[in-house]
């Protein structure tokens, strides 16, 4: 993680669009209710999920590269820690990601370092809901 604790609030203020990698159709999962919470706080939310769904009224794309470039600057990831290297490979290949946010319980030091070396701001093992409530 190359974003300091005191930088998180300004990071959230600077990016009002969030793309969610793995936005679940299951309202009981954090990968669904965290994006709902952030949308209710004023952020614009798009998502990726392998199967298109309309649960929650989100615009869902099949893969990250389908999301318009201007909408994928802040990427909130809901994938297991062992899959983060694949996510970083994908974002380095397609470009456009400025912030890589790995949700609570998700971290992969090697993959995070690769993203950081590419100039991406990385936040790991942090929940957007918790950080929003702490900072706003």
From TrEMBL:
SUPFAM superfamilies attached to this UniProt entry: NAD(P)-binding Rossmann-fold domains
Q: Where is the signal peptide?
A: none
Q: Which residues form the CoA-binding domain?
A: 16-132
Pfam family membership, one: CoA_binding_2
Q: Where does the record place a coiled coil?
A: none
Protein name as it appears in the record: CoA-binding protein
What organism is the protein native to?
Answer: Leptospira ognonensis
């Amino acid at each position: 993680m190359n974003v300091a604790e005191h930088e998180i609030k300004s990071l959230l203020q600077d990016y009002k669009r969030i793309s969610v990698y793995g936005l679940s159709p299951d309202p009981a999962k954090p990968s669904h209710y965290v994006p709902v919470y952030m949308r209710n706080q004023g952020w614009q939310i798009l998502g990726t999920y392998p199967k298109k769904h309309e649960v929650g009224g989100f615009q869902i794309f099949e893969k990250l590269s389908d999301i318009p470039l201007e909408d994928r600057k802040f990427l909130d990831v809901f994938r297991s820690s062992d899959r983060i290297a694949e996510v970083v490979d994908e974002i380095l290949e397609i470009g456009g990601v400025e912030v890589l946010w790995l949700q609570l319980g998700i971290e992969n030091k090697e993959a995070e370092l690769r993203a950081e070396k590419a100039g991406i701001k990385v936040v790991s093992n942090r929940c957007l809901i918790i950080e929003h409530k702490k900072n706003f």
